[in-house]
Amino acid sequence: MTRTLIAGAALASFVASSAFAADLPARVYTKAPPAAVVYGWTGFYAGLNGGYSWGRSRATVGAAPLLVTTGQNVNGGLGGGQIGYNWQLDQRWLVGLEADIQGTGERGRATDPLGSLRIGSIGITGSANSSTDFPWFATFRGRAGILADPSLLLYATGGLAVGEVKFGTQATLTAQLFDGNSNATIGAPVTVVGPAFSESQTRVGWTAGAGIEKKFNPNWSAKLEYLYLDLGSKTYFGGTAAQTDVSFHDHIVRAGFNYQFTAAPVVARY
Length: 270
Fold this sequence. Notes:
This protein is mostly beta strands. It contains 1 helix and 10 strands.
């Protein structure tokens, strides 16, 4: 009898437990939150760029009081490549080094008056056809910036600049005979074209600018950059009658992309 009662109680308990379990809602399984990718900026990188530049050449011929200054716009497209290394100091700050070399199509041409002179009844006027070419330049710069977010860098940059500046000039003199009383011209003017001078110099100066760079995956980034470049003033055709001091500076806007040679990004675990 006792065994029968124990068996019945166990059966009743099993039935009650099964019924209670059937009334419970099904267990809901939730996915773990996605891993957060932390972009790493430290490491070597290389890339290509292209853009446009607005240069200015200023040439000074002669000496006071017969000093003549002329200027040219030296504009054109450019393209090249860059290599560098970044050190990410913490989640906000980054420093680095970068070198680049550019080929350009920057050229300027101008015809400028050199003044006029009257000797008795003879009037003499002069002009100069000049040209400035900026075929290439390279920069060696430091970079320092702040990470506005893990994938967006705002930076300033500056350092050494080296470039080739080619300058050419050719003077033209025109003589005209005048009547001493009426000041009317007599006969046709006589024009004499002087020899053409041309010289290229590799010059050293400085550059400074700023930019923005955005990573769109762990290894690839795109950037937009502005640079001001100043190569100072140098003397061309020294020791000749055409001796000229030529200064040159440039404004550069370029866009490009970089590939960073690093391992996979750091992944935060939950």
